[in-house]
Structure prediction request, 441 residues.
Amino acid sequence: MVDVVVVGAGAAGIAAARMVLAAQRSVVVLEAMDRVGGRCFTDTSMPVPFDTGAQFFAQSQSLNTDMYPIANQFGVESFGAETVKRSFYDPDFPLIDADPSVFYASYAAINACLLEQGLEIANGGHDCPALQVLEKAGLADLPYRELVMQFLCTVVVGRPESEESALDLFNFAQFSPAPFLYPPRDSNYVPGGLGTYLATLADGLPIVLSAPVSCITHDGDGVTIHRAGGEPLRARAVVVTASTAAVHGIEFDPGLPPEYTQAFHDLPMGLAYKAMLGFHGCPFDGRLGTQAGTMNNVIPLVDGPTPAYSVNYFAEHYPDAGTHLVVTTEAAIAEQYEAMGPQAAARDILARLEDPFPGITGAWNGRVVASSWGMNPYTRGGMSSAKAGRAEARALLQTPVGGRLWFAGEALSARSHSLLNGAWATGIAAGAGAARASLRT
Ligand SMILES: Cc1cc2nc3c(=O)[nH]c(=O)nc-3n(C[C@H](O)[C@H](O)[C@H](O)COP(=O)(O)OP(=O)(O)OC[C@H]3O[C@@H](n4cnc5c(N)ncnc54)[C@H](O)[C@@H]3O)c2cc1C
Prediction:
């Protein structure tokens, strides 16, 4: 019998397994996919490493007290997001650098309102959707309101402003200035790939890949884990790190207490889409302030229902690799792009970018890699968000079931949900709890 089985080898699972081993207990990690990292994975099939999920250490100067300092110790190269140059364009005025001051004024007003009202809710006020907070404060008609909220809610948290809990957003946003937008203090990009770094933290762990867990039976004496293609494993405790949507692919026997099932439903998965495209030459150079040798974040100033997307332009760290763009889009368009497939989605992205970068379609070398977090059965989305009034579901899931069954993952973190460091911290806590439980016979 093994002491602890960990289900999932993403950030939370890797942290949990390391914690169990540090407590001198035995551990086996069962991972459904054929690789480690979960939603933090670096694709190396292009000349430039491409993080299909998590890309930067968030909250690096505030709450990221476990992962980021270890990375620094290991000498992992990273650079502050404040060094990334930002440009804006307005599709109504092609080829003219847009003046972002109106946009930033809206952003500042909305951010201040969400922080102020969020604090009030945190102190006992009534939670409601983020959009309602803005409506009550008379800010719903600010210019670029939808764009600001697309970045705050749907790119960062993955869900629309009409559904995302204002309290949940506050818990996150008070420490996490939207990294694509504001001169952010708290984020560090990792040019070698954040997923590559996370995978090094899994080195040496006893991980079984391509081992999807289908059923977990649990009682006062221990747990039995059933997986495809292998004998059932008996253990003293288990840590389950599947996302709040992927967890529905696992049967629990006896079934979970109703408040746990409810909590998973109250933390639905949002979505974001990322694609990396390669180009002949450097079709952007000089346009909208882009230059070879810089990393540039281009943001379209679009009012109304057009979805937000931002463009990261990579050159500085890979001078010999040609030009590459990473495009990140918000939830509504993310679903369409996943359904269309990478080639068709790339053509749509290029058509949109013809406006600021004429000729870009012709410069595309045909290569594209894209994320598919929504369609992946083992993630079923990008990041969790809380329904209005249900932000406390995150804390509820931190309590083990029957002293043998722990949950972990970004969704359980109140202040760092949707983030890698949130996943890591909950994995450490669950791993420590499960290791202690395994001492009981
Ligand atoms: C597009 C995008 C961009 C992001 N950008 C950032 C960023 O820049 N910075 C940041 O901090 N965060 C970012 N995030 C969030 C970050 O990637 C996640 O919060 C974090 O990786 C989640 O880790 P986790 O361990 O909780 O879950 P996961 O990474 O989902 O790990 C869970 C693991 O469990 C496995 N699993 C699921 N079901 C089963 C089963 N039945 N049997 C066995 N295994 C199973 C899965 O395959 C997976 O490997 C981003 C996310 C997305 C989608």
About this structure: The two ends are 11 Å apart (CA to CA). The chain is about 30% helix and 20% strand. The first helix runs from residue 11 to 22. The CA atoms of residues 67 and 421 lie 6 Å apart.
